[in-house]
Every structure is written in structure tokens, then in C-alpha cells.
Amino acid sequence: MVSAIIFLVILFLSFGVFIIPKSYKYYYSLLLLSFGMVLSSIWCYRSFEPGTGEYVVRLDFSAFQSSFILTIDKLSAFFILVVNLTVLTGFLYAGGYLRPYYPSKNALRFSIHYFSYLWLYFSMIMVTMLRNGVSFLIMWEIMALSSFLLVIFDAEERSIMKTGINYLIQMHVGFFFILIAFLVLNKATGQMSFDALGTYFASHSNLLLFFLFFAGFGIKAGFIPLHTWLPLAHPAAPSHVSGVMSGVMIKLGIYGIMRVLMSVQSDLMLIGMIILLISLISGLLGVMMAIVQHDLKRLLAYHSIENIGIIGIGIGLGAVGLATNNNALSLLGFSGGLLHVLNHSLFKSLLFYNAGSVYQSAHTRNIEQLGGLMKKMPFTAVFFLVGSLAICGLPPFNGFISEYLIYLGMFKTLSSANLYQSIIIMISLSGLALIGGLAVFCFTKAFGVVFLGQPRSAQASSADEVPKVMIYPQYITIAFIVLIGLASAWFVKPVFGLISQVYGLAGADVFASSPVLNLSKISLISGIFILTVTGLLVYRHFHLKNKPIETGPTWGCGYTAATSKHQYTASSYADNYISLANPVLGVKKCMTEIKQEDIFPVKRKFETHSFDFFKKYLIDIPINFLLELLKKIAIMQTGQIQHYILYLFIYMIILFLLSYLNLI
Amino acid sequence: MGFIMILIAAFFFPGIILRTKSILSGRKGPGIFQPVKDLRVLFMKGSIFSESSGLIFKIAPAVTLASILCAMLVIPFARQTALISFEGDFVFFAYLLAFGRFFAIISAMDTGSSFEGMGANREALFSMLAEPAFFILLATFSMFTGYTSFSGIFDNFFISDNHYVLIYSLIGFYLFAQLAMIENSRLPVDDPKTHLELTMIHEVMILDNSGFDKALIHIGSYLKFAIFGA
Q1: Which of A120, A246, A358, A577 is the most exposed place for a label (fewest CB within 10 A)?
Q2: B140: which residues sit within 8 A by CB, 6+ positions away?
Q3: Contact B82/A at CB under 8 A
Q4: If pLDDT is split at 50, 70 and 90, which confidence band does A606 have?
Q5: How does strand B47-50 pair with strand A549-552?
Q6: CB A455 within 8 A of CB A354
Q7: Residue A55 CA to chain centroid, in angstroms?
Q8: Which residue ranges make up each domain of chain B?
């Protein structure tokens, strides 16, 4: 009761951003944000207390006969905590990131930006707490609108505005699907709420309604082929916003899917299989397309699709486990997916922050123009490296833990599976392994080209380390990445508990004990690994102390006048991969071949264009068709008032005829 | 026990291979202790670092070696169980090796040399393609034996009296040998003894390493060889 009032007061106070002086706006927003976080974290803590497993915040407005109800169960609590963490680091980072924009943008622009950021946060946490369909949809809409306003912060650039509108439209398509799903639910049960799903699913076909929800939430999450807004919106948005959007906002799509899946009762096998298939395609195509990108942030955006795919693989396996009453598989699949939600929010936001730092000091996101930044920006480089290692799922970082859980689920089921299941598992297993290999390929390219070697342009060689304000918040993220990697059992146990309660898995404690034991062994080896590395480095240090150390030019096969242009570029790094994967990717190369009679070198051009199959055939071609159609209809728009009166007249005659014939 | 045996074996494998190769091609060849002697020479030497290289180039050899050493902890040798064994330890094994490889690749990129970039790129590509094969293979093994750790799987291979297992395991070991070719950069995937930079994979990545770091890299590749042998 009291906490609900405090929450509403915080919501109301957010309007104050508009009247505070420009230089204090940031601190005011930070204050409100932290109040919101403390309050929501307390609610999460309450929901973890033993008992019903739900914590309800309720405020009745008896005058209007309505009430404000927030229900926090463990699933919501998990997502709220993830949101809190990333939104906080994002806003702290924004303190430094937005500073160069202060002179060029007026106070109103900043007010709108901070206000949308606050409301993006409030809407994200409320989405996880609201069960009523109408209020859920309102919050879902506020989430889309506020993130739209955040994306178009740099709206002076026309392309950014265009991207923003593209994003807004796609979000509304998703909204439409969820709305229809709720309306179907309302028609059948008379209730518009997630709580009514159980009664609906008990008596109706599960498949249709689930996939209506899946389409709506899937657009938000970015499953292929619903992903086309992602690689456009993330590069356009300011980096702290991309970090928050990619780190947590798209995960609310996952939240929605998991919430609906809780109530699904039949057709689980089919649902699980389809989720698994879509996720596998998302994972593979996401990372395959990421490799050929030259824009650092777009590369990261495609990686979000890949990671959504990995999360989806976990969820799909969990659903298959539910269908076959294989509780161990459900537990490991769902937990792996859910833990990956947390992990991805950490390393992806970290990577986006550092991509933003690179953009801010080198003024370009094109990786072909960067290089050698590690010497100029050591902190950014090391953070980016940690993020890269974690996102590739390499131990001893956190990405490995969630992928390991998913792998373990697969391997454990394999020995007891029938032919049909083992084929599915084999395919997803090899898919997941290939995703891992491709991710390593992609991030060695990204890190190697951006941070190592020699600078490839004047902008890159004049880059400097970003201010400390932007570096400090990233330590928080790094700490969690390392902590989850090394002390995984602490984090996995609560997730196991959560999953077994939410999905009602009986006897989960028995299954949970052996993975936890495995994880402690992983922690052990990871510890040994770190000790070995430090040991070797210390030994190396003392060993080389009294040995002659020289620096010389890099070996160039006898040709020493090499310039930085001779370095291996991102395009050449990806080239032999493209020649393998081009049937799927369709990368276009534009160049003139060198002929035998060309003796002297002349100026040449070489371009590659990456291309997104789904964007072309699902978005661009239908839209162009629609535009053509609308142009034809536009003939009616003559601008002469006589014609318009004629249209009106015809319309009335039609109406009259129709009603006369009893057709309407 | 097994761990130490792998360590010892690792230093003799390359020597023996070199010797066998030489004898087969009608030359006398170096003695089997030659690799150990090479290492000693490298340890004594100083180092030269490339101008464009930085921190990564310096720490990468140590990281790679450490990753291989730690990956060895889960490998059973002959009939012994591994030092540390748990369910799904081969996932950990594969990813830890990938960690070392990640560093090897970026350290090659750090020199800014186009040759090393090329090697790095090939290494990344081949290992990427080998990864699913490794997982499918082990998944098949674990399907037959019902165990999900290296030790469990290999123990049961020897115990089982099912005749089919023998056939499957022969096929499996053939595939495994192919994978080992890729991992250890052997013919036909790569020829470590070639002298043209353009045709190398693993060797070209370490063109600029010298002295102590090079010794570490060599030890690493010997160990990797021994792991797959075991």
C-alpha cells in the first residue's frame, strides 16, 4: 500500500525533468532512477521470501472502482533485477557519453531524452509486474514509444529519423499481434489477463494462441525473420541506449514467451520444436551475418540476434522436456536460457558501451578505418576483450556457464532419447557448437581489426581514452561477468529454484545437485587456469628481466616499407568465410579484375555489400509494392472540390443501395 | 599419474615423428631429443618484439599454454581416470582450447602483418568448422556409453563387450584422427614444415614470436599433440 503510493509518486515526479535547470537534469533523473531501483529490488526480495512465491503490491481507488495491482513472482523478480542492473550502468555511462552533446543540443532535447529513459525503465519493470492485459499493453506501448524517442536522439541526421520510424512501425506490428492474442483470450474466457491463460489453454487449441503471442513477443526479441528492426535501430541509437535496448529491452520479449509458456498445456512438443528450429536459425544466421558487417554496432546488433537464438534454444529444449516429462532437460534448458538472459545483458551492454567509446573518440564505427586502438585506449580495449571472450562463451567467463547448462541438458538426454529426439538434439548440438565457432571467428575479427595492429586512418590514430566517468560504471558489469564465471554455483542455484517453481518441475532438487557439483568443478579448473596464467606471466617477467629485449619491424617477407594499409583488413579476414557461406549470405563484391595485360597499377575500387535476405523479401519488397499500389490510388486525389463532392455522393448512393438490399 | 605421462610423452612425440618421417624419406634426421634441445635454446635467448605489437602479443603465448595445460586436466590417459572429471567435461575442454586459440589468433593480428592475419583467419575458419564435428562425435560416444564425461566414455569403451561398439569406435577414432589433424595443423590441412609464408596456417601465426614466448608456443603445440594422442 505505502510502497505503491511511493512508486506512483516517483512516476509522477519524473515529469519534473522538464522544469529542472539543464545541468541538474541528469542528477535529478539519476536520483529518481535509483529510488525506483531500490523500491523494485525490495519488492523482488520480498517475492523470494518463502511462502506463496508471489508478492502483490495493491492500491485500490474505490472512487473509480478500479485498482492498481502489481504482481511480482520469481520470474518477474529475475527480470526486474536484470533490468535494474543494466539500466543503472547504462545511465552512469550516459553521464560521460552525453557530455559532448551538451553545447549542441538544447535543454528540451535533454529533458525528452532523460524523461524517455526514465519511462523506458518504468515501463520495462511494470511490463514484468502487470498481469492485466489492458495495462500490460499500455506499458508495452509506452516501452516502444520511449525507446523510439531515445533512438532518435540524433534526429538531425535524416537516416536516424527514418530508422526510428521503421522501428516504431515494426513495434506496432508486434503490438498488434499481442493485442489480437489478448482479444482471442478475452472472447473465450471473458478475462484479459495472463492469469486467464491457464483456463483458455485447458479447453482450446494451444498452438494458435501461443504463436500469436510468439509473433508479438518475437518481434521485440528479434527472432529471425522478425529481426529486421534490430540491425538498423541499434547503430542509430546513442550507445547507452543501444546497450539497454539490446541488453534488456529485447529480453522482455523472452519474458513474454516464458510467461505464456508457463500456462501452455498441450501441443508442447510441437511448440518446443518450432521454438527450437526458429532459435537455431536465428542463432546461426545472426552470427553469420554479423561476421560480414563493417559497422561495429551493427555487428553487435546481429550478435544480439544470435544470443536471442541461444536463449531460444534453451527455452525450446525446456519445452521439449516438458512435453516428454523429462524434468532434467526442462530444468537445464530453461535455466540455461534464463541465465543467458542475465549473461547477455551484461556482456552485450558492456560491448555496446565500449563500441560507443570507440565511436566517441575515433568518430567512426567503420571497423575498416580503425586499428591499433589498444595502445590509445587500453581500458576500453581490455573491457571489449572481456566482453568478446564472454560473448563467445569461453570459460572462465559467464557466457560459458549458460551455454554449458544447455549443452549438459542435451548430452544428458541423449542417452535416453528415442531416434526422433536424438536427431533433434544432435542438430541443435552441432548448431550450438557451430555458433560458438562462428562467434570466435567474428570477435577475433572485430577485436583484432579495431584494437590491434596499426591505425588504418587519421581518425583512429588521433583517438584518445574516454573520460573516467565512462569507464567506472563498466567495472560493475565486469565484476558480475567474472563473478558469474567463477562462482557460477551461487547464481545457478537460485535460477534452478526459480525454474522448478515456475514450471512446477517435481523432484528438481535431485537433478539440480549434480550440475551444481559440476559447476563447482568448473570453478576449480577455472581457478587453476587463472593461477597458471598468472604463474606463467610472473615467471616470464623474471625470466626476461636479464635477457636482451629488442623491438624491430614486423616480418614482412623482406619487404619492410609496409604501411598500415598492408594489414589484413576486416574484409579480407571475412573473405574465405564468405566464399563458403555466400549461398546463404549473398554478399556482393564490386571490383574490376586485374587483367594479364595490366602492367602498371592503376587506381582501383573494391566494395562489398552485405545483404539481409529477410529484410529484402519480408520488408522491402512488400513495402515497395504497397507504395506502388497507393500511388495508383492517389489518382483520386485531384485537389478539385467538385471531385470530392462527387466521391461523397457516390459513397452515399452505395450506402443507400446496400441498406436497401439489406446487406448492412 | 596420467597427467605426468602426457607431459613426458609430449616432449618425445614430435621428435619421434620427425625421426620417422626422415627415415621414411631416406634421410638420417635429427635425434628424438632435438625438440627438447630446441626448446632449451629458445629459453636461453632474448626476445624481439614487433613495433606494432602490444600487450596482447606478450601475454598470448602464456595464456594459450595455460589453456592447454588446464584442458589436459580432464583428459584420461590410457586406463586411468582424469584428474578432474565431471559431466560434460568435453564441453569445457573444447571451449578452454578455444580460449587459447582466441588469444593465439588475436596475438597474430596484433603484429599488423598481412601474413599473420592470413594465418589467423585460416586458423579461425578451420577450427570453426571442426568444432561441430567434435561435438557430434562426442555426442555419439556418449549416446552409446550413456556417460557424459571423457573418463566415463573411454572407460566404458574398453569394458563393453558389445561387438558393435568396436566397429563404431573404429569409425569414431578415424574421425577423431581427422580432427586431430586440424587441431595440430598437420597434413593435409596444414604442413608445419613448409617454408613459404603463404601456405602455412599455424606456423605463420607465430612468425614474429621469439625467445621465451616461442618456446611456450612450441610446448603448447607439443602438448596438444599429446592430448589428441591420448
Answers
A1: A577
A2: B168, B172
A3: no
A4: low
A5: parallel
A6: no
A7: 28
A8: 2-229
CA distances from A485 to A243, A354, A427, A489, A522 (A): 21, 21, 27, 9, 9
Our CA-based measurement puts residue B102 at a distance from the nearest CA of chain A, in whole angstroms, of 7
Other C-beta atoms lying within 10 Å of the C-beta of residue A266? 14
Q: Write the pLDDT tens digit of every residue in A354-397.
A: 999 998 888 888 888 887 888 888 899 999 999 999 999 888 89
* DSSP for residue A59: E
Contacts with A, B 193-212, CB within 8 Å: 197, 207-208, 211-212
Residue B68's closest chain A neighbor by CA?
A529
- CB-CB under 8 Å, A567 with B113: yes
**Among partner residues A385, A554, A580, which is closest to B112 by beta-carbon distance?**
A554
Verify cis geometry, omega within 30 degrees of 0, for the bond prior to A548: no
Phi and psi at residue A420, to the nearest 5°: -55, -50
The backbone region for A558, taken as left when phi is positive above 0, alpha when psi lies in -120 to 50, beta otherwise, is: left
pTM for the whole thing?
0.89
Listed by number, the residues of chain A in 520-549 with a beta carbon closer than 8 Å to a beta carbon of chain B are 521-522, 524-525, 528-529, 532-533, 536-537, 540, 543-544, 547-549
- β A66-73/A54-61 pair status: antiparallel
The CA-atom distances, in angstroms, between A425 and each of A312, A410, A443, A522, A558 are 14, 6, 27, 24, 52
The answer to whether B225 and B12 have CB atoms below 8 angstroms apart is: no
> How far is residue A550 CA from its own chain's centroid?
46
What's the grid cell of residue A400? Answer: 560459458
Residue from B40, B34, B9, B10 nearest B22 by CA: B34
Amino acid identity of residue A103, one-letter, is P
Optimal mutation site among A423, A443, A447, A452, interface B, most CBs of chain B within 10 A? A452
Measured CA to CA, the distance from residue A70 to residue A84 in angstroms comes to 17
Q: Which of A374, A411, A432 sits opposite B55 (nearest CB)?
A: A374
Q: How many residues does chain B have?
A: 230
- A319, A274 Cβ separation under 8 angstroms: no
Q: State how far the Cα of A212 lies from the Cα of A203, in Å rounded to an integer.
A: 17
∠ at Cα A477 (A307, A4), nearest 5°?
A: 90
Task: Give the helix ranges, DSSP H, for B25-162.
Answer: 34-44, 55-72, 89-110, 114-145, 150-159
Residue-wise pLDDT for A168-221, tens only, equals: 988 998 999 999 999 988 888 888 888 888 888 888 788 888 888 999 999 998
Q: Can you state the angle between helices B89-110 and B211-229, rounded to 10 degrees?
A: 150
Contact B132 A517 (CB under 8 A): no
- The domain locations on chain A are 568-609, 613-660
Q: Which residues of B touch A524 (CB under 8 A)?
A: 84
Task: Give residue B54's identity as a one-letter amino acid code.
Answer: G
CB A17 within 8 A of CB A114: yes
**Cross-chain CB nearest to A414 (options B49, B69, B143):** B143
Pull the grid cell for residue B110.
Answer: 596484433
Considering only CA atoms, which of B28, B126, B107 is closest in space to residue B61? B107
Which residues in B lie closer than 8 A to residue A433 (C-beta atoms)? 94, 131-132, 134-136
Q: Is A419 helix (H, G, I), strand (E, B) or coil?
A: helix
Using only the alpha carbons of chain A, give its radius of gyration: 27
Rounded CA separation B175/B188 (Å): 14
Map grid coordinates 612468425 to a residue: B207
3-class secondary structure, B114: helix
Decide if B112 and A371 are in contact by the 8 Å CB cutoff: yes
3-state secondary structure of B127: helix
- CA angle (A142 as vertex; A140, A143 as ends), nearest 5: 65
Residue whose C-alpha cell reads 575479427 in the numeric block: A445
Distance in angstroms (rounded) separating the CA atoms of residues A13 and A24? 15
ipTM (interface predicted TM):
0.86
Peptide bond into B76 cis (omega under 30): no
